[in-house]
Amino acid sequence: MCFRAKKQPKAAIVPENFVKKAARDAKILKALVEARKVRKTEHASKRAVALKNAEKYAKEYAAADLKLVNDKRAAKKTGSFFVEGEAKIAFVIRIRGINKLSPKQKKIMQLLRLRQIHNGVFVKLNKATWNMIRMVEPFITYGFPSRATVSKLIYKRGHGKVNRARLPLSDNAIIAGELGAHGINCVEDLIHEINNCGPKFKQANNFLWPFKLNTPVGGLGGKKRHQFGQGYGATGNREEHINSLVGKMI
After folding, report:
1. Is residue 96 exposed (0-12), middle (13-18) or buried (19+ Cβ within 10 Å)?
2. N or C terminus: fewer CB in 10 A for the chain?
3. How far, in Å, are 108, 183, 223, 235 from residue 231 at the CA level?
């Protein structure tokens, strides 16, 4: 009795293009994993730097507040008056439309980037900007924002200009990508630069898209054609009272 040997199955032939594709996919996957590790490490280091900067700014703000209190107490103790320094920045809000707007006033509104009602912008105060503000005073209200107001505006209503697009400041990477060359890499850096009117204020302010605010709760509290300083108007200089108005419009 004889047995016939079983035929061994032939080895499957893999096409060469399949082999090349598998090698290419493996190479891409390896590069992707390595890139993710590098990006994760960089992100952790950037977060650590941002946290360190936030702590530094908090100490700086606390020291400035303490100095102000001590100066006021020292002045009161000696029977004199303490006068705070002049404001460096103003927050300007457009509250009227285009009716009776002259070509020169229209151009100033464009330069201030106040193209819509209830748009708000930060303005560095100097002789030129004061003249511009006075020219369009019947159409705007403005004042000197506190540090808390600057922070609330940027955190709650802040949008950045990236490739002519309006993007919410939901990630520090957006700020670092546009302002990293100027030493501004996170939201706290941006707030510090705006609030202190630092050397890179122009770049930081141009990066911020004009704030789109709501209609204030309870209205503006006066007639739009009269000055706020008259006691029954809405336009013009509100000084520190701009903070309460912004709080109603955020």
Report:
1. middle
2. N
3. 27, 43, 10, 11
